[in-house]
Amino acid sequence: MIYQQTEEACDYLLEKAAEYHIDVKWKHFSPYTPPGSSYEYRRVIMNLNWHRPYELVFQFAHELAHVIHGDTGDIVFYHASFTGKESVEYKANVGAVKLLVPFYCQDTDIQCVNSANFMQAFHVPHYLANVVSEEIREYYVN
Hints:
The structure is a single chain. This protein is α+β, with helices and mostly antiparallel strands. It has one domain (2-141): Orthogonal Bundle (Arc Repressor Mutant, subunit A). It contains five helices and four strands, in the order αβββαβααα. The protein has a four-stranded mixed sheet with strand order 1-3-2-4, covered by helices on one side. It is globular, with a radius of gyration of 14 Å.
């Protein structure tokens, strides 16, 4: 079940990448080589051998958010330390949540949606709990 959800989420994000004209490459690197992205080349590189494979969906959304936001320079640190709401990594994490909420909520009644389940399903960092709750609320308001 988890694998199927991961596969479906990746398919959804691949559609988003195509919509934004972002090239995505899935490669085999060392298990500790983080994913990366380049706004200049409109490309995301994902590591299929990442040592925590359950993080891949959120990583993918995070890297897409870097390109969508136009973050300049090549970004290679998915797990940079949290340095505040103005940091490029925080903004990419918020962008990742914004990308994933419509996938998670589609065809689901608001009574059945749970922000804690969303965070667990996509391994969203705990400091984004308020962002997740707000984005889910916004999804159903709009």
